[in-house]
């Protein structure tokens, strides 16, 4: 991924200043459209233009399984991952409905589903059949994590080649909130209990077990805070794919809309690997998972929506996408005071 990271350039904040100056000439009191104006400035900086484009968006859902599911940390059995991949391919999941609503190109990528996926339309980029159980050994080798990152970068390349001007990255994988919580705890050196939530809906007693599993794994792995090492030791293949996707989006100056908790942990890994990538991220929504607030704080991010969602798949990011479209429309379609003959 060094070649991808080498292509990521810091945004030009002078373009942001030009964008804000232009927004202040439009027929509205300065700053009256609040955070929508800040979003418009960000999109101008990302695209290095006063006329940014975000349509059409590309939705990419990465799917993989987790060895730590053996420890009973999830409310659902591991077979659900492959079943949901088939559901994505058939168009029956929440993200399919929301992607259709915003006219997105959608792709489903298998980077590590444990079961056999024989469904038309699913991209086979399987690195291995699920990660190893990180309670007993590293989830991945660093080479496997890198391969998954490259699969994510290639998926963004495909979206860009198909004409997409923004990307929404989602994920599916039973036990991936456990892996994400472990990665976040390691990166932030933060107590696990403050980060871990119910995920897909586990009972209170199983929540305590989930926390204990992560704490034991952190002690056993001893991976420090170096992002690539943490990702390989504790992460997931779909998490690594999203890291690669976020970095590739930044390399191509594409706005990447970040979904909830798991996507934000992937975004944090990407930013730790390349701080300049942060300016290319737009945060879609605040998840109900308690760890998400800590990930957002570490990224200095304020999400666009707060709907108490915890589904994943990229669903919250897709719901936030119309706000990016509105920010572009404001820049493109609103009249200036001079053009409209309105007194300042």
UniProtKB/TrEMBL annotation:
It is an enzyme of class 2 (transferase). SUPFAM superfamilies: Nicotinate mononucleotide:5,6-dimethylbenzimidazole phosphoribosyltransferase (CobT). It holds the Pfam family DBI_PRT. Catalyzes the synthesis of alpha-ribazole-5'-phosphate from nicotinate mononucleotide (NAMN) and 5,6-dimethylbenzimidazole (DMB). PANTHER family: NICOTINATE-NUCLEOTIDE--DIMETHYLBENZIMIDAZOLE PHOSPHORIBOSYLTRANSFERASE (PTHR43463:SF1). Signal peptide: none annotated. Keywords: Cobalamin biosynthesis, Glycosyltransferase, Transferase. The active site is at 313 (proton acceptor). It catalyses: 5,6-dimethylbenzimidazole + nicotinate beta-D-ribonucleotide = alpha-ribazole 5'-phosphate + nicotinate + H(+). Its EC number is 2.4.2.21. Belongs to the CobT family. The keyword Transferase applies. Pathway: Nucleoside biosynthesis; alpha-ribazole biosynthesis; alpha-ribazole from 5,6-dimethylbenzimidazole: step 1/2. GO terms for molecular function: nicotinate-nucleotide-dimethylbenzimidazole phosphoribosyltransferase activity. It comes from the Bacteria. This is Nicotinate-nucleotide--dimethylbenzimidazole phosphoribosyltransferase.
């Amino acid at each position: 991924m060094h070649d991808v990271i080498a292509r990521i350039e810091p945004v030009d904040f002078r373009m942001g200043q030009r964008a804000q100056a232009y927004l202040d000439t439009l027929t509205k009191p300065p700053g009256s459209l609040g955070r929508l104006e800040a979003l418009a400035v960000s999109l101008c900086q990302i695209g290095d233009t006063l006329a940014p484009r975000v349509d059409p968006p590309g939705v990419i859902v990465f799917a993989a399984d987790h060895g730590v599911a053996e420890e009973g940390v999830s409310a659902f059995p591991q077979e659900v991952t492959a079943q949901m991949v088939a559901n994505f391919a058939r168009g029956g999941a929440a993200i399919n409905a929301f992607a259709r609503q915003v006219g997105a190109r959608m792709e489903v990528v298998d980077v590590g589903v444990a079961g056999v996926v024989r469904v038309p339309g699913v991209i086979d980029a399987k690195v291995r059949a699920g990660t190893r159980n990180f309670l007993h050994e590293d989830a991945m080798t660093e080479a496997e994590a890198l391969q998954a990152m490259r699969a994510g970068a290639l998926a963004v390349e495909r979206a860009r080649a198909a004409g997409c001007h923004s990307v929404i990255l989602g994920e599916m994988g039973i036990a991936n909130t456990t892996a994400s919580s472990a990665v976040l705890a390691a990166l932030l050196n933060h107590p696990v209990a403050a980060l871990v939530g119910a995920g897909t809906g586990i009972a209170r007693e199983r929540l305590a077990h989930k926390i204990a599993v992560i704490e034991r794994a952190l002690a056993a792995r001893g991976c420090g805070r170096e992002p690539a090492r943490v990702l390989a030791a504790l992460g997931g293949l779909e998490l690594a794919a999203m890291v690669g996707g976020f970095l590739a989006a930044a390399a191509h100056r594409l706005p990447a809309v970040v979904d909830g908790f798991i996507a934000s942990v992937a975004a944090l890994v990407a930013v730790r690997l390349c701080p300049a990538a942060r300016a290319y991220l737009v945060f879609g929504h605040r998840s109900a998972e308690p760890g998400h607030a800590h990930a957002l704080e570490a990224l200095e991010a304020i999400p666009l929506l707060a709907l108490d969602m915890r589904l994943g798949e990229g669903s919250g990011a897709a719901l936030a996408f119309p706000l990016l479209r509105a920010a572009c429309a404001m820049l493109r379609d609103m009249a200036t005071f001079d053009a409209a003959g309105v007194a300042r």
